[in-house]
Write a structure and sequence with these properties.
mainly beta, Immunoglobulin-like, 17 strands, 2 domains, ten-stranded antiparallel beta sheet
Length: 283
Amino acid sequence: MKIIVSLLFSIFLITILSSTTIITVFAVNEPIKEISLDNYKFMYSIKFVCIPFVGPDKEEAFVPQNYSTVVNVHNPHSQSTFFLKKAVIAQSEDEERGPISNIVRDGLKPDQALSINCKDVVGLFNNSIPSIGDGFVILMSNEKLDVSAVYTTQSSIDVEYIKPTISTTNELPDLTIKLNSLQVNCPAGQGSCIHTIEMKITNLSNVPVNTPFNVKVNSDNGLSTIQTMPSILGSTTQTLTAILGPGNNCYDPDCQIDAFVDSSNIITESDETNNKDSLVSIG
C-alpha cells in the first residue's frame, strides 16, 4: 500500500510541475532509497539527548535528570526548500556502534518552521528502537537554514544555534542568462505598450537545480516582471519569454532591458557573478 501511495504522489507532483500554475507539494518524511548527497552543500549536525530519566551512573556522563531535546528548523527564504534528515545514535566507547536511521526527505514553504522532538527521532528509526539515548540529528540542504536546538531538563533550558558544515568539494550549479531579442507593440499609443523579451537560461554545470528560482526582468522606464522556473537540468539551456507592460514605451529614445537569473539568491552557485545580462536597443 505504501508503494502505491508513493507512486501516486510522484505522478501527481510531476503533473503539477509541468502545468502553467506552479504549486509546491510536500511529502513529509518521504523515505529516500537511492539519492546522491553530492548536491547538498550545507550539513547541520545537531546533538540530541532524549533520556526519560538518568540516575547515578559509573561514568557520570549525565547528572540525574530528565533530558529532552527539540530541534527547530526555519526556512528564511522566499522560496520553498527541501532538505534531507537522518539520525545517528551514539554509544559508549566499549559498546557496539549505534544504528543510523534511514534518510528521509522533508520540506518547508517560505517562512515555515519545523520542530523535531524526541518522538520524531524515534520515528526516523521506524519506531523500532524504544530508547534512543543521545546522538545526532543530521540535516542536509542546498540552501542555508535557521537551525537551533533546545535542551531541557526539570530545572533548566538551553538554546543553541547550529552553524552548518559547508562542503567545498562538491560541484555546484552555475546559472547564466542571455537576452536575445526585444519587441515592442503599442496598439493604442503610450500606456498600451507590450514589451516581449526572449531570453535563454543556461546551467553551465552538470549539477541540476531542483529548487524553484526566480527570473527578474526590468526596463529602464520602470516596468518589471518576475517569473519562477521550477527546475533546470545540468548542462542544459531553456528559452524563456517575459512580458513587460502594458505601459509606456521603453524607447525614449533608446531602451535598456536588464535581466537577473536567481534574482532572490536562492541557489548556491559556483559563480555568483554571471547572473545578470543587459540589452540596449537603439531607438
